[in-house]
Amino acid sequence: MDEYTADAFVNRDEPVPVLAFTGTGSPSPDPETKRSRLRESISNSKLKEKIQDGAASRSETGFSLQDRLLTKLLQQVIPTENIEEVLDLPPDKRSSKYLGRPGFSIPLMTNNFRRFNSRIGIVFVFQNRLIRVLTWRNPTHTLSLLAVCTFICLDPYLLAVIPLAVALLFVMVPAYLVRHPAPPPTVHHDAYSLNGPPLAPASTIKPAPEMSKDFFRNMRDLQNSMDDFSTAHDGVLKIITPPTNFSNEALSSTIFLFLFVSTCTLFVASHLLPWRFFSLLLCWASIALGHPSVQQTVLNNRESHIRPHEKKVQSWLDAWIARDIVLDEPPESREVETFELQRRKGGRQGEWESWMFSPNPYDPLSPRRIARQRPKGTRFFEDVSALKGWEWGDKKWVLDLGSREWVEERMVQGVEVEVEGERWVTDLLETDDSSAQKAKKAGPGVEEGSSSEQIPFGQWRRRRWIRMVRRKGVSSSKTNGE
User: Fold this and answer.
1) Global pTM?
2) Helix intervals (H) in 342-423
3) pLDDT tens readout for residues 267-315
4) Which residue from 79, 89, 95, 68 is spatially nearest to 46, judged by alpha carbons?
């Protein structure tokens, strides 16, 4: 195993540090969660396409015979299925170059990871040097950075100089010194001519060879960086999510109010604020907090000086929220309906029997009636339940006495409406479900009456029941638990 590669960017100093927050750690993945994610990632519809796309690329890059056999086997096992047809997705209008890229493939993923790990060293070198500067390992370097930040804060137009200066000092000058190296310390300067052709070949950046120590150093830093990102992600969400996801509506409403007022104020008066002074103060404070002595002083004085003020501010904020933030709006209420359907038993002179309670009136021209399908609903009144997320606002159902109104709203034809008594809306004999086309020829066909002795009725009748529902609230404890 090679000790190092001369022409590769690799972090050969101490490893990239791992972030850690108090009370949190790197949680072990849940086995059930991992299984569910794996099942989703290897669905039949996607994996088949991805394996087929990866097969062509693997044949070109020269994978082993074992990888090719595994790919062919998976192609035969997984059935072909078009995900766009199953989910009824619109056609993809992205560029053909993007759509033509290979899908997921384990061998291709492995090869890309090896290539990526061989070339990611420059990122870790920059990260490690930035940490060394911000933690005052070399005070002269940190003071130089502080001076540059001061000039930029006082004159923001100098930001345009930074890319050019970086290219000049960190790309061009080192490349020239490689071609024209300085004289060795054992050689007298007068005997070493600075003129003439280059003394060394041009520098090239090469990836770290596999199975070298530099390759494993990159893997070590990549592993630590992934842990850093996961820890930072969880820590930020732990701080930001509770006050902003409206689990505590009073606190979230207060934050929303402050943000709205601040946005409107800055929109009008932002040009009056000394932004250069604010940025200079923030820059100096951020870099100063990286000094170990300053960090220790802040930690030592936090309990005695900062903590009491935090409690005062928290108590003032809680009192202001309790006094000025009012969240006592009544829940949303709506009226729901159900139709009691009855069917004649034993022909035209038979008795009516209770059939079911349906959300639709099952009138002569309803789609299910024309298609000769049974109505949908429940057999008993007690089985009619509120929709998900709603609860009953009344104790019992109430019969709708305005039967003519809901008949006219739905433009129901071929029925007789009772305006007194039990408010049944009964099918006329001419609009029996044996011939739905006759109901269309009958015109409006809505007759009123309180007696049904002289009118030949059909097989179905219905009446409307109404009840109030209100939206069900979700408790904060249940929200946090989810």
Assistant:
1) 0.58
2) 367-370, 403-409
3) 999 999 999 999 999 999 999 999 999 988 888 888 778 888 888 888 8
4) 79
